[in-house]
Amino acid sequence: MSLHVVVAGSSGFLGTHLVAALRESGHTVTTLVRRPAASGESTWDPYAADPEQRLDRGVIAAADVVVNLAGSPTLGNPHSKKWAEDLLTSRVTTTRVLAEAIAGVPSPPAYLAGSGISYYGDHGDQLLTESADTRGHAHLTEVCRQWEAATTAASAAGARVCLLRTAPVMDRSSAPLKQLLPLFKAGLGGRLGGGSQHMAMISLRDWLGGVVHLAEHPTASGPVNLCCVETPTNAEFTRTLAGAVHRPAFAAVPSAILKVAGGRMAPELLGSLNVRPQALLDAGYTFQDPDVASVVAAGLAR
Q1: Rounded Cα distance, 140 and 216, in Å
Q2: What would the mean pLDDT of 241-268 be, rounded to a whole number?
Q3: What confidence score (pLDDT) does residue 99 get?
Q4: For 271, phi and psi rounded to 5 degrees?
Q5: Distance between CA atoms of 289 and 297, rounded to whole angstroms?
Q6: Longest Cα pair distance anywhere in the chain, in angstroms?
């Protein structure tokens, strides 16, 4: 069955690939853009003071599924207050505006709302499915809590809501692999801290396949971990990437240095997230890249 999918954040790395994947699957896509609209687009301004000027409610009413991937870049200066504020405000505002629009139409479409795997916070070795709690006050964990809470209007109106708790997507054309690859090729790669912390990740093709699967399967709802099936430790990832580029990786960045240099992002580098995509598995999705070796190979192959 062909769906009409509205996508916000379509100009980013994941959004660009998702629009292509949805269209390749036979679905009609309308992208929300912050400029005069061309064919297949609709102009929106989530920051407009007048709610009626924020977006075309008719586009939302005509949709089967709305996907929100909008937000300022995660990669930035972790010591910058503006970066931290933009990271939060851009995600919460766009998510809330779309949730309220969905709640305001007669037949609310499904809402696949962006979120992050950082929602859980550091849990050590504990295996985390979607029922796990959220812990700590790391910046991205706090962002994810408010990000997900901004979907409330849509769920209260009876819309099917999936919270896309996305792990870092490993692809050579995007962070973090894009930044790591030159270091590892130069033989300068190494583990972060002790390396025993679990490091969540997913291949691009499994992220795309998982999101398209959620759009197409109306029984899927609630939080969804978008990560590979077997989460490696940082040391395992380091060995795998070094082996893939045929270089040694003996270096290690001490935790004390990472805590200073990483600023607000240090908990993301040193915290442990042993996550499992149980909701996607239960929904019948089959992973192409279930472990670190296949995730790294897929990321390098593109």
Answers
A1: 29
A2: 89
A3: 98
A4: -75, 160
A5: 9
A6: 59
- What does the block give as tokens for 96? 């809330």
- In order, the DSSP letters of the chain are ---EEEEESTTSHHHHHHHHHHHHTT-EEEEEESSS--TTEEE--TT-SSGGGT--HHHHHT-SEEEE-----SSS-TT-HHHHHHHHHHHHHHHHHHHHHHHTSSSPPEEEEEEEGGGG---TT-EE-TT----S--HHHHHHHHHHHTTHHHHHTT--EEEEEEPPEE-TTSTTHHHHHHHHHTT--EEETTS-SB---EEHHHHHHHHHHHHH-TT--EEEEES-SSPPBHHHHHHHHHHHTT----EEE-HHHHHHHSGGGHHHHHS--EE--HHHHHTT---S--SHHHHHHHHHH-
Q: What's the CA gap between 59 and 298, in Å, rounded? A: 36
Q: Terminus-to-terminus CA distance in the chain, angstroms?
A: 30
Q: Flag the least confident range among 105-119, 129-143, 188-202, 259-273.
A: 259-273
Closest of 33, 8, 29, 12 to residue 20, by C-alpha? 29
Q: Of the candidates 173, 161, 145, 165, which has an alpha carbon nearest to the alpha carbon of residue 273? A: 165
Residue reference for tokens 């929602």: 119
pLDDT, tens digit, 9 for 90 and up, residues 30-82: 999 999 999 999 999 999 999 889 999 999 999 999 999 999 988 888 889 99
Q: What is the pLDDT of residue 302?
A: 67
Q: pLDDT digits over 210-254, tens only? A: 999 999 999 999 999 999 999 999 999 999 999 999 999 888 888
Least confident of 156-160, 169-173, 259-263, 294-298: 259-263
Judge whether 275 and 260 are in contact, CB under 8 Å. Answer: no
Mean predicted lDDT score pLDDT of the chain: 96
| Structure-token pair, residue 260 | 């200073």
